[in-house]
Amino acid sequence: MTLVAVGHVSDFPSGSRTRILVQGRELVILNVDGELHAVRNRCPHQGGPVGEGPVTVTVRADSHTCWDPTVMRDMHVLRCPWHGMDYDLATGLAVGNHRYRFRVYETRVDADGTVEVVL
Amino acid sequence: MQSGAQKETHHAASVASGAERRKSACSHSGSGYRVSYGQHGSIRKSPLGLLELPPRGGILCQTSYDLGQGRDHPFPVFTHGAPRKWDSRGRQQCSRGSRTSYLWRSQQMNATPPAEPAPTAKGDGGPLAHLFIADVDVHVHDDPGALAPYCDPPWDDALRELTHVHERYLDIPGFAIGWEGIDPPIPGRIPGVEDAGDHPDWETRVVRSADQLRSELSALHIDAAIVFPDNLLTLGALANPRYACALASAYNRWIEAEWLDVDRGLHAALVVAPHDPREGAAEIARWADRSGFAAIYLPTAAVNPPWGHAMYDPIYDAAQEAGLPVVFHSVGIIHPNFPHNVHAFSPAGVRHALLHPLGMITSLMSLIGSGVPARFPRLKVVFTEGGVSWVPFVAWRLDREYLERRREFPFYSEPPSHYVRQFFFSTQPIEEPEDPRLLVQLIEACPGADHILFASDWPHHDFDHPRVISRLPFTHEQKAAVLGETALELFRLRSGSGG
To answer: For position B122, what pLDDT does the model report?
Structure first.
């Protein structure tokens, strides 16, 4: 496990999206509703810049929703700008498709406000 | 079941006369399909695999089919051994020496075969002899006269009226809407030369009784089968929903009364008219407990909206509750509804090659699009008479779309190919690539050999012998599964070879 400092928490205000290069890997730090997410900026599908896609919601239809498509507001979804693949921002798993998963990294904020990414 | 000694005696009596006829026929025939004449007889199968079909009542030509046992080619070769003609009035001319007889094609199709003892099955050994073989698609001839006694009024009178209508293959105005007569007849029927015409009689081969069916299936090594209609393949093209539902009910009563015989391996698929799904669900509930109804036949030709539409949910719900698989079956008719709007395609072979798999693809896409496999997780779905090589193509296309448009498929937790692999697909008309390994690779890619079912489509012109499976480079276990074991479990069939 390697901790890499990527900046101060004030560098990543809510709603921001910051591209950084860490040990040769391009990451994107996203602040979504005050929560920091670090993701590899490479879609496992065809290599698109997934970290630059919109953070949005997706829909679900199952017996709990009486099979009506329902917006899933409990999940932040990162949508790849190349082909529109939806990924669960928390896990990196493609929504409804376990064949694809992009790298998400744990982030930590020190007492002094330093943001570190766990590689 | 007959004893082995009985089987041998039965065969021995037939081989001598059969051999003589074959010898005579070979004098003016290249190989394969031969014509012989004479008295009515039951099907006989010689040790060489020569199957001789009984003549239909009133038919003066007796045909025999060399099913290619011991040959290099996996399929029967149909070459006509005697000149024959259809004259301008639609009559078939059969010549035997100086004798010429005429037979109306409609009479040929409406004739009643003589009752004959069933032949033995699997008596000639060979790779198929020790396998349980289930055929998930055979056809019986449901002409209007057959259904009339079983039909509710006023439609029973309509069917009696239709007995006076000239019958063409899957094409009876007011009953079986085919629209197939858009190509010119192919000239070139030269006396003494193989009949290269557009309507050889093997295109009008029909099965009219349970005894006949059992006999013919036994000669094909088939132990158990699921019966489908001939003419009601076009049920979806009928415009009057009350009439369509009445025909479906009449057919099911007819099947129950005259065809079901699980002790002899004869099962059937319930016919459900797509026109009124609630009535279809009631029809399923009416027959669900009747032993022998092993599946529910859903016609795909001309059906609009396609089968994924929510209006059909009552049918799927009833099928799921009854534990009966639904079987989608197409037919090559011309109709304004997609994908049957092929009126600009010629010749018929192109339309036929296009329509069967496209009918399956259309139905499968529609089911996937509306979440049927997720919404009815216990529903078993079968696609028949489209071949199998299109399945991975469709699965991969859907997966690609799903990648980009997952939001349009909110029912699923896995890509569509996951659900396609839960469906079952029957083999006929099986693709025959030069390298059969390619076909096996495609099958293993999707849906997997464990979801492939053998179907012959007997007695139709493009039928497949079980040999098409035994000759593929499957493992022995895969062959056994495809030829029967999977169907046995899926449809809860019973074997009845030869009865």
So the answer is: 53
Residues B241, B94 within the same domain: no
Secondary structure of B107-171 in the HEC alphabet?
HHHHCCCCCCCCCCCCCCCCCCCCCCCEEEEEEECCCHHHHHHHCCCCHHHHHHHHCCCCCECCE
The pLDDT value given to residue B168: 79
Per-residue tokens: B340: 């049957």
Q: Give the number of residues written for chain B.
A: 499
The answer as to whether B209 is a domain residue is yes
Residue B96 has pLDDT above 70, yes or no: no
- Tell me the mean pLDDT in the region B223-245: 97
Residue B402 to residue A59, Cβ atoms within 8 A? no
Does the pTM surpass 0.90? The reply is no
Residues B114 and B198 grouped into a single domain: no
This model of the complex carries an ipTM of 0.91
Query: Closest by alpha carbon to B89, among B77, B102, B76, B99?
Result: B102
The CATH number linked to B175 is 3.20.20.140
Residues B65 and B162 in one domain: no
* Banded pLDDT at B201 (limits 50, 70, 90): low
Interatomic CA distance for residues B333 and B177, integer angstroms? 7
Give residue ranges of A with CB < 8 Å to any B CB.
Answer: 45, 58-62, 67, 69-70, 83-86, 94-100
What pLDDT, on the 0 to 100 scale, is given for residue B196?
41
Contact B407 A61 (CB under 8 A): no
Domain boundary among B87, B118, B149: B118
Question: Do B193 and B92 share a structural domain?
Answer: no
Residue B67 within a domain: yes
Question: Which chain B residue shows the shortest CA-CA distance from A72?
Answer: B410
**Same structural domain, B158 and B40:** no
Structural domains in chain B (count): 2
Helix (H) or strand (E) holding A71: strand A70-79
Does B15 fall in a domain? Answer: no
Of all residues in chain A, what percent are helix, strand and coil, respectively (each to 5)? Answer: 10, 50, 45
d(CA B496, CA B329): 24
Q: Are residues B90 and B222 in the same domain?
A: no
Looking at residue B497, what is its pLDDT?
53
pLDDT at residue number B416: 98
Q: Out of A62, A70, A95, whose CB is closest to B406?
A: A95
Which residue numbers in chain A have pLDDT < 50?
A: none
Instruction: Note whether residue B13 is domain-resident.
Output: no
Find the residue in B nearest to A70 (Cα): B410
Residue B94 confidence (pLDDT) above 70: no
Question: Which domain covers residue B259, as residue numbers?
Answer: 134-490
- A70 CB neighbours in chain B (<8 A) are 410
In angstroms, the separation between the Cα of residue A65 and the nearest Cα of chain B is 10
Are B281 and B346 part of one and the same domain?
Answer: yes
Is B403 within 8 Å of A45 when comparing Cβ atoms? yes
Residue A109 backbone phi and psi in degrees, to 5: -120, 120
Contact between residue B323 and residue B285 where contact means Cβ atoms under 8 Å apart: no
Among chain B residues, CA nearest to A80: B404
Is the pLDDT at B108 greater than 90? The verdict is: no
Contacts of A61 in chain B (CB under 8 A): 371, 410-411
Task: Report the gap between the CA of B59 and the closest CA in chain A (Å).
Answer: 57
Q: Read off the pLDDT of residues A26-38 as tens digits, 9 standing for 90 and up.
A: 999 999 999 999 9
